[in-house]
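Researcher: Quick test of sequence recovery. Tokens follow.
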């Protein structure tokens, strides 16, 4: 899956709250994205749903991230942000870890 976003924007995607960018719809196996144009490189907003394609299942990947990996990252961040997919970590921190 390719998103035309800057790396420092990717770390700011939110998964909770009224302005969430990533959704895991309850009655679906897809992942839904809603990204405003101010976050996009091409300045065009994006609303999309991604589902399983072959062996790649974005929903399972995100669920695994949220359940297993994200809590480990959150422990390492000085001031974690529970609304952010990557916990509010700065890009340079994630790139060196």
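Model:
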């Amino acid at each position: 899956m390719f998103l035309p976003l800057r790396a420092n924007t990717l770390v700011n995607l939110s998964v909770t709250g009224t302005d969430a960018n990533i959704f895991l719809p309850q009655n679906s196996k897809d992942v839904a994205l809603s990204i405003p144009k101010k976050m996009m490189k091409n300045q065009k907003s994006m609303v999309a749903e991604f589902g399983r394609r072959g062996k790649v299942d974005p929903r399972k990947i995100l669920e695994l991230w949220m359940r297993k990996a994200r809590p480990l990252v959150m422990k390492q961040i000085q001031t974690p942000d529970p609304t952010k997919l990557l916990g509010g970590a700065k890009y340079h921190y994630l790139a060196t870890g």
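The longest helix spans residues 58-76.
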